[in-house]
Amino acid sequence: MLFGTALTSLGAWIYLSLFHGKFWQKGPILAQKPTPVCAPDVAVVVPARDEADSIRECLTSLLEQDYDGKLSVILVDDESTDGTGDIARALPDPHHRLTVISGQKRPAGWSGKLWAVHQGEQEALTRIGPYGYILLTDADIMHAPGHLSSLVAKAREDDLDLVSEMVALNCESTAERFLVPAFVYFFAMLYPFSRIASEHSRIAGAAGGTILLRRRALERIGGISALRGALIDDCTLAAHVKRSGGRLYLGHSALAWSVRPYRGMKDVWHMIARTAYVQLRYSPVLLLATIIGMATIWLLPVALALFGKGRERRVGLLTYLLSCLTFVPTLRRFGLPLWRAIPLPLVAAFYMAATIGSALDHHRGVGVRWKNRSYTDETS
Q1: Percentages (nearest 5) of helix, strand, coil residues in the chain
Q2: Cα–Cα distance measured from residue 230 to residue 344, given in angstroms and rounded to the nearest whole number
Q3: What is the C-alpha to C-alpha distance for residues 135 and 42, in angstroms, rounded to an integer?
Q4: Which residues of 221-257 are buried (b: 16+ CB within 10 A; e: fewer)?
Q5: Binning pLDDT at 50, 70 and 90, where does residue 377 land?
Q6: What's residue 379's pLDDT?
Q7: SS3 288
C-alpha cells in the first residue's frame, strides 16, 4: 500500500515534469522592442485605493513611456483616504497624458477593484480608436520606458487579444526569499504558460500587474461588467477572452516590477489566503482533494526519504529530488542559490496551511479582505 502510494507520487511528478506544459521553465520573457509602425492608440487604466506610497513612481513610469502612438493614462482614485488622488493630480504631465477620476461608490454585485477598473474602462474607450488597446496595471507596478512598446509589438506581431506578464516581485526580505519564488512557481504549475498560449487547451490565465487587452476582445466579451463580481479578476478576464475565441500570451517580465514589499510571513499568508478558497470555488470537496493531492506530491516523498525503509525510501528520495530539480529555473530567475530548493516541501506545506486558513476564514464569515474592504462572496 505504502509503496503503491510512493509510486503514485513519483508518477505524478514524472507527468508534471514532462507533460504539464513544462511549467517549470524560466521563460518566456519578452525582449524590449521599439514601438511598432503605425502604433495603435493605448489607454492605461490604473485602479488605486490608498496607494500614496507608490502612486507617484507608478504614474511617472507610465507617463514617461517611450511610445510613439497616442497614449492616455487614467488613474481611478477608488475612495482613497491617504491623498492618492491629490498626489497624482500634482504630477508633472508635459504631454497631457494623465486623467485622474474620482471613483464613485461601489454598487452591489461588483468587487471593489473591478468597479474601479470599469470606471476607467469607460473613460479609456473614449480615448482609443476601434483598433486600440487598453493596458490594465496596478498602482504598485513600475514600468521601464520601453515596456508598453514591447507589449504592443508582441500583440501586433502574434495577433494576440491579450498579452500579460508576471512582473518581477520583491525578493529581499527573509520571508520573500523563502516564499515569493515558490509563489511564481506554484502559479505556473496551476497555469502553465504554454497551455495558456495554446488554442487547443482550455487553460486560461493572466497576471493582474500587466494585462494589455485589445479593444475588440474587450467588447466581444461584454466589457469589464461581464466579470463584475470576480475576486480573481485577472484569470477570470483571461478565461472570458479565451472562451470568446481570443488568443492569449502570459510570460515573465524583465521590464516591469512590483514595489510592494512582503516584510514577513504574515504578509505572504494574507496574499495567499485572500483568494485561495475562491480558486477552489468555495468547495469543501475541492479543498479536501487539494489537501490530499498536495500531501501526496509534496509531503509524502520527503517523509519517505527521511523515515522510510528500502524501496519506499528510494522512491521517496527520487521523487523529492525530481521536485527540487523543477524548482531550479525559478531560483535562477530570482538569482538565489540552488540550496533553497531543499525546503520546498516545507514551503508547500505553508501554502497548503494558508489555503486551509482561507477556507476557515470563509466559513467564519470573514471572506476576502483587501484594502479595508471585505467580500464574503462574489456578489456581495
Answers
A1: 50, 15, 35
A2: 31
A3: 7
A4: beebeebbbbbbbbbbbbbbbbeeebbbbbbbbbbbb
A5: very low
A6: 41
A7: helix
Q: What is the mean pLDDT of the chain?
A: 94
Q: What amino acid occupies position 41?
A: D
Query: Where does 68-207 show beta strands of DSSP type E?
Result: 71-77, 98-102, 133-137, 141-143, 162-168
Tell me the fold of 42-266: Spore Coat Polysaccharide Biosynthesis Protein SpsA; Chain A (3.90.550)
Partners of 37 in the beta sheet?
A: none
User: What are the Cα distances from residue 88, in Å, to 42, 164, 275?
Assistant: 19, 25, 29
280: its cell numbers: 477552489
Q: What is the pLDDT of residues 298-326, one digit of tens each?
A: 999 999 999 999 999 999 999 999 999 99
The strand ranges marked E within the chain are: 42-48, 71-77, 98-102, 133-137, 141-143, 162-168, 210-214, 248-258, 368-370, 373-375
DSSP 82: S
Enter the pTM of the model: 0.94
| DSSP SS3 for 339 | helix
The DSSP bridge pattern shows strands 162-168 and 210-214 to be antiparallel
Distances (CA, A) of 319 to 182, 259, 293: 18, 36, 14
Can you name the residues that pair with 106 across neighbouring β-strands? none
C-alpha cell at 218: 474587450
pLDDT tens profile 178-209 = 999 999 999 999 999 999 999 999 999 999 99
Task: Name the grid cell of 308.
Answer: 522510510
Classify the C-alpha dihedral 107-111-116-122 as positive or negative: negative
d(CA 97, CA 118) in angstroms, rounded, equals 19
**69-115 residue pLDDT tens:** 999 999 999 999 999 999 999 999 999 999 999 999 999 999 889 99
Q: How many CB atoms lie within 10 A of CB 18?
A: 8
Q: Cell numbers 490604473 label which residue?
A: 46
Domains of the chain, by residue range, sit at 2-23+281-368, 42-266
